[in-house]
Design a protein that fits this description.
Layout lengths: L7 H39 L8 H16 L16 H14 L5 H26 L2 H13 L4 H12 L21 H17 L6 H5 L9 H15 L3 H17 L4 H28 L2 H7 L1 E4 L10 H17 L4 H14 L2 H4 L1 E3 L2 H30 L2 H20 L3 H5 L2 H16 L10 E4 L1 H10 L3 E2 L3 H4 L6 H14 L7 H13 L14 H20 L2 H6 L2 E6 L7 H4 L2 E6 L4 E5 L3
Parallel strand pairs: 3-4, 3-5
Antiparallel strand pairs: 1-2, 5-7, 6-7
Length: 594
C-alpha cells in the first residue's frame, strides 16, 4: 500500500496557522478564566453559577429583564418606556436568553462571555499592531486582562492548598459589567480599524483623492467604511466611549495632519450612521426628570473650577510616551489620542461647566488604555534589547517601565477594591436563597416591597417591579417626591421607624458608592443637603402613610412583600397579607387587597 506524501507547503501552512492561532487561543482562555472565575467560585461558595459583585450588576439585570419579560426597554420601577441604557447592550442578550428558555440571570453569563472573547481578542490585536510578535503580544494582553486581578490567583492557590476558597476576591474594574467589559471591545474595534486604515495609506492623503473616490480603488474603501461603522456603533452602546473616540479623531488629525482627509471621512461616516442614536440621546435627555439628573449626577451645572484637575499622573505618562509613539510606533497614534481624550474629558467641566459622572472617562477608558500604552512601551524595549543585544543600555529603561506599570496599577484602585463588600455578600446570599428555594407560585405582576436586596433579586427573576432601592434612585422618569413616597412606604412595610429613614438611606448609598460626603466626580453620591432633603420629604410622607397606607399601596400597585429572616410585618398590615412561601432565607407575602 502506497501513501502519497504530504506536500511540504501544506505542512508549513498548517504549522503557520497553528502558530498564529495558538497565542490568541491562550489569551482567550485567560480571558474566560478571569471573566467566569467569579461565577465558578460562586458555584462552590454560593451554590449557583451567577455571582453578583456589585449593586450595579443587579441594576443592569433589572433593566435587561424588562426586555426578557416585556419585550421592550422599560424603567424597572415605574414601567414607563424611558431608560438611559442602550437597547443593543440590554435588549439583545435578553432576547437571546428568552429564545433559548434560560433564566434572566443568564444574561450576565452572556455579558461575561462576550467580554472575555472581545477583550482578549481586542487587546491581542492591539498589541500585535504595536509589537508585531505573536507571543509577546499574547503575554502583554494577558498582563492587561489580569491586572489588577491577581487576587484571583491567590484565591485559587489558597483554594487548591486548603480545600477552602475563603471570601471571594473583589472584581477588577476592567471586568465590571456592563461598563467597561461589554462596551470596551467595541472601542478596541474602532481603534484597530482606524489604525489599520492609516496603515493601508502610510503616506499623505489628499482631499482630491478623497473626493474623487480614488481611495476605494486602492483597497482602502472597505477599511474606511469599517472605521466609520465601528465608531458609529459606539454611539449605540456607551456614551463615554463615542465621545472620546470622536474627540480623538480631532486630536489625531492635528498630530497626523497628512491623513486629515482620511480621519475626516471616517468621522463623517460615523456621524451619519450614528445620527439617529445622537438624536435619540438628546430626546432622552429632555425627557429625563430634572430630579433624576441630580440624583444620577449627569448633565448638571457645576462651577468650572469646582475641583482640582485630576489624574495628572496618567496625563504625564501619556505625554512622556507621545514622542516614542510618533517616532517608533506611528500606527498607534490614534490609540494614544483616545487615551489622552479620555483624560481631557474627565476634566471637561473646566470648559463645559457640566458634570456627567466625568470620572467614568478615566476609570473605564484612560485606566485600561494607558496601561496598554505602558505595556507596549515595555514590550518594545525588551524586543529592541533582544534584537540589538544592548541589554545594559536598555536595562534602566525596562526597570523604569516596570515601576511605572506597578505605580499605575496601584493608583486609584484601593477605593474600588474595598467598596461595597457588605452589599456584595448580602446580594450573593440572597441570590442563593432565592434561586435555590424558588416559590412554586412565583410573583407575577405588580410591585414587590420589603427587603431591598431580596426585592431586587425577585424583580430580576420574575415580572415584578421593586418598590424602592437603587433602581428607584436611578429611575430616569422618577421625581424626588415619588422617590420619597416609595422609600417611606417601603420602610414602613418592613417595620422601620420614622427616625431610621435617613440612616437607612445613607447606608444604601454608602454600600453602593462609599461614604456619603460632598458630591464628587464619580457618580450619584449626594450632597449632605440633598440627602437631608430626601430624608425630610420621606419623613413627612411617613406620617401620612402611618395614618392611611392604603392610598400609596394602591397607587404603586404593591401586591407582594418579601422579608428576610427576623423581619415581621406590622400587625395591622399583616392582617392584609397572605403568606405564599417560607424558606430559611426569606418569606413571601401577597396583599389580599390594596
Amino acid at each position: 500500500m502506497s501513501h502519497s506524501p504530504v506536500p511540504a507547503s501544506s505542512t508549513r501552512a498548517s504549522r503557520g496557522l497553528g502558530d498564529a492561532v495558538a497565542p490568541l487561543a491562550i489569551v482567550i482562555l485567560a480571558g474566560l478564566l478571569l471573566a467566569l472565575g467569579a461565577a465558578l467560585a460562586g458555584w462552590r461558595e454560593f451554590g449557583c453559577f451567577t455571582t453578583l459583585h456589585h449593586g450595579d450588576v443587579v441594576l443592569y439585570l433589572q433593566f435587561s429583564s424588562q426586555y426578557f419579560f416585556h419585550g421592550q426597554g422599560l424603567d424597572p420601577v415605574t414601567g414607563k418606556a424611558l431608560t438611559l441604557y442602550p437597547k443593543l447592550v440590554m435588549g439583545l442578550p435578553a432576547w437571546l436568553v428568552a429564545r433559548v428558555g434560560w433564566s434572566p440571570f443568564a444574561v450576565l453569563a452572556i455579558w461575561k462571555t462576550w467580554a472575555a472573547l472581545g477583550l482578549a481578542t481586542g487587546f491581542y490585536l492591539v498589541f500585535w499592531q504595536g509589537l508585531r510578535r505573536r507571543w509577546p503580544s499574547a503575554l502583554s494582553a494577558i498582563v492587561v486582562l489580569a491586572f489588577p486581578g491577581l487576587g484571583w490567583v491567590r484565591w485559587f492557590l489558597h483554594a487548591a492548598a486548603s480545600g477552602r476558597g475563603g471570601p471571594l476576591p473583589p472584581l477588577p474594574p476592567l471586568w465590571r459589567i456592563v461598563d467597561p467589559a461589554v462596551s470596551l471591545p467595541l472601542l478596541l474595534l474602532a481603534v484597530l480599524s482606524v489604525q489599520q486604515l492609516r496603515t493601508r495609506v502610510p503616506g499623505e492623503v489628499s482631499w482630491r483623492d478623497l473626493f474623487a473616490g480614488r481611495l476605494g480603488t486602492t483597497g482602502v474603501g472597505g477599511w474606511l467604511l469599517l472605521s466609520g461603522a465601528a465608531l458609529a456603533l459606539l454611539v449605540y452602546t456607551y456614551f463615554y466611549y463615542w465621545t472620546a473616540a470622536l474627540l480623538a479623531l480631532c486630536l489625531v488629525a492635528v498630530l497626523d495632519r497628512k491623513a486629515l482627509p482620511l480621519y475626516f471621512a471616517a468621522g463623517t461616516i460615523a456621524l451619519a450612521v450614528g445620527m439617529p442614536g445622537l438624536l435619540h440621546g438628546l430626546w432622552l435627555r429632555q425627557q429625563t426628570n430634572p430630579d433624576a439628573l441630580r440624583r444620577l449626577n449627569v448633565f448638571i451645572s457645576v462651577p468650572h473650577w469646582s475641583w482640582r484637575v485630576r489624574h495628572l499622573g496618567s496625563a504625564v505618562i501619556c505625554l512622556l510616551l507621545l514622542p516614542w509613539v510618533r517616532r517608533h510606533r506611528p500606527r498607534l497614534v490614534y490609540l494614544w489620542s483616545v487615551a489622552f481624550s479620555g483624560f481631557l474629558l474627565s476634566d471637561s467641566q473646566i470648559v463645559t461647566g457640566l458634570q456627567i459622572q466625568n470620572n467614568h472617562w478615566y476609570r473605564f477608558l484612560v485606566n485600561p488604555l494607558v496601561m496598554v500604552l505602558v505595556v507596549l512601551f515595555i514590550g518594545w524595549l525588551l524586543l529592541e534589547s533582544a534584537v540589538t543585544g544592548k541589554r545594559r543600555r536598555h536595562g534602566w529603561r525596562v526597570a523604569a517601565g516596570l515601576i511605572l506599570v506597578l505605580l499605575f496599577a496601584m493608583a486609584g484602585e484601593a477605593e474600588y477594591l474595598t467598596a461595597g463588600r457588605t452589599l456584595r455578600s448580602s446580594l450573593n446570599r440572597n441570590l442563593r436563597s432565592v434561586l435555590l428555594d424558588w416559590p412554586a407560585h412565583p410573583p407575577r405582576g405588580g410591585t414587590i416591597a420589603g427587603d431591598l436586596c431580596l426585592a431586587d433579586v425577585f424583580s430580576v427573576a420574575s415580572a415584578v417591579r421593586p418598590l424602592s432601592g437603587y433602581a428607584a434612585l436611578a429611575s430616569a422618569p422618577m421625581s424626588d417626591l415619588e422617590f420619597e413616597q416609595r422609600w417611606a412606604l417601603n420602610e414602613y412595610l418592613v417595620g422601620r421607624s420614622r427616625a431610621q429613614l435617613g440612616s437607612d438611606l445613607s447606608e444604601l448609598l454608602g454600600s453602593l458608592f462609599g461614604s456619603v460626603t460632598l458630591r464628587n466626580d464619580d457618580g450619584p453620591v449626594m450632597r449632605p443637603a440633598e440627602l437631608q432633603a430626601l430624608t425630610r420629604g420621606s419623613a413627612q410622607v411617613f406620617d401620612q402613610i402611618s395614618a392611611n397606607p392604603g392610598q400609596l399601596l394602591r397607587r404603586f400597585d404593591v401586591r407582594w412583600l418579601v422579608l428576610s429572616p427576623g423581619q415581621q410585618p406590622l400587625m395591622h398590615v399583616g392582617k392584609r397579607l397572605q403568606r405564599m412561601a417560607t424558606t430559611p432565607g426569606w418569606t413571601l407575602f401577597r396583599f389580599a387587597r390594596n
